[in-house]
DNA sequence: CAAAAAAAGTTTGAGCTTGAAATATATTTT
DNA sequence: AAAATATATTTCAAGCTCAAACTTTTTTTG
């Protein structure tokens, strides 16, 4: 919103501040798009949080952590985990602490290195995650139900481009 | 991820669990799309948070509140504010408290009703927001730079559809 | 090898977020 | 007028989030 006229315009056709260069127009349209993208994402996220809470007594961050661990049978080190999820180290500590309390994951000492530990899903954790993941996929299809297969593919590609535009380290274990 | 075969399939052509109905395919593709959409949104949000913090010592929630207030010269009641932003009541209380401390907004008593108060931007708040909003638009264009005007329009429309699919009260002041 | 640097994790402090409970005030019913 | 109900907002507890500070351990290097 707001954002006056653009000083870098090449053709000052009109002297009024209401002048709109093509650059402005694109900028405004991208802003509009972003606001809608943010709103859509938040809506879907809110719905997911709500269902995860009601139906599984869990949260999205916990789900994210378990999803990451589910992809690595050998477990992940804390630093690798926060790297994969792209959240801060300290953040993951707390979430894993709670998952450990509930018996969904374990911290296994790494033999050679007394600093590090591998975080791994327990059997209970794997089972809980399997149930949640299945529900999760169903919810997404429900929430994005009117997006066709082809359209979804198109969107995925476009989002990939956006992701790649920003710096994308994407480190592994 | 995970999500075994779909029980509701109409044609059990293959007895194996690896069977994939068109319904499965679309479901998986939508999940893929959602994960990318979430990732993109988080990337952009993270970038915005970072810049807002560094350049203005502020946060996205504060910015959101100020943006909402900027659209209502007469101010908004707390309940209307949380309604517009679609966040909990208690949430807004804290954010507004901090904005008041910094002199960016004020709480004005509503004449007829001693329960309610109107939250309004101060001059300082309006000026701060104007600067932030301008930078914000620039950042968005930077972050979504390779999205063309037409493409942005298309995305906007599509997101609108997603938003409309979920319940959309959108109350006003 | 000892000092310095780097790496793995945790802790801390401040802020955001929610849902539920508490408070206060208004309005409606009885 | 008293009681019940509705509305406006705050408080609270639990959890998520980050950046920065801090331990402990390992690796590098002079």
Topology:
Two copies of one chain form a homodimer.
Chain A: H1 22-56, H2 60-70, E1 76-77, H3 78-85, H4 89-101, E2 105-109, E3 117-121, H5 123-143, H6 149-165
Antiparallel strand pairs in A: 1-3, 2-3
Helix pairs in contact in A: 1-5, 2-5, 3-4
Chain A binds a DNA duplex (30 and 30 nucleotides) through residues 49, 53, 59-61, 77-79, 87-95, 98, 112-117.
Quantity of strands of chain A, as a count: 3
* Mean residue pLDDT of chain A: 84
**Widest sheet, order of strands of chain A:** 1-3-2
Q: Please, what is the oligomeric state?
A: homodimer
State the CATH architecture of the domain at 59-164 in chain A.
Orthogonal Bundle
Helical percentage of chain A: 55-70%
The radius of gyration of chain A is 22 Å
Instruction: Output the CATH topology of the domain at 59-164 in chain A.
Output: Arc Repressor Mutant, subunit A
Overall shape of chain A? globular
Description:
2 copies of one chain form a homodimer. Chain A is mainly α and 173 residues long. Chain A has helices spanning 22-56, 60-70, 78-85, 89-101, 123-143, 149-165; strands at 76-77, 105-109, 117-121. Chain A has a domain at 59-164: Arc Repressor Mutant, subunit A, CATH 1.10.10. Chain A has 6 helices and 3 strands, in the order ααβααββαα. In chain A, helix 1 crosses helix 5 (123-143), helix 2 packs across helix 5 and helix 3 (78-85) packs across helix 4 (89-101). The longest helix of chain A is centred in the first third of the chain and has 35 residues, at 22-56. The model of chain A is unreliable at 1-14 and 168-173 (pLDDT under 50). Chains A and B meet through helix 1, helix 5 and helix 6 of A and helix 1, helix 5 and helix 6 of B. Chain A binds a DNA duplex (30 and 30 nucleotides) through helix 4.
């Amino acid at each position: 919103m707001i954002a006056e006229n653009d000083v870098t315009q090449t053709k000052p056709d009109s002297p009024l501040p209401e002048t709109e260069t093509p650059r402005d127009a694109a900028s405004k349209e991208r802003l509009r798009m972003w606001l809608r993208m943010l709103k859509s994402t938040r809506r879907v996220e809110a719905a997911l949080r709500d269902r995860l809470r009601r139906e599984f007594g869990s949260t999205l961050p916990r789900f994210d952590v378990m999803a990451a661990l589910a992809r690595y049978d050998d477990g992940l080190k804390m630093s690798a985990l926060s790297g994969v999820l792209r959240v801060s180290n300290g953040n993951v500590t707390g979430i894993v602490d709670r998952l450990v309390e509930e018996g969904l994951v374990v911290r296994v000492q790494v033999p050679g290195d007394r600093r590090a530990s591998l975080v791994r899903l327990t059997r209970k954790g794997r089972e809980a995650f399997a149930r949640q993941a299945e529900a999760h996929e169903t919810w997404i299809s429900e929430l994005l139900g009117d997006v066709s297969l082809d359209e979804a593919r198109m969107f995925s590609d476009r989002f990939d481009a956006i992701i790649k535009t920003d710096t994308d380290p994407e480190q592994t274990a």
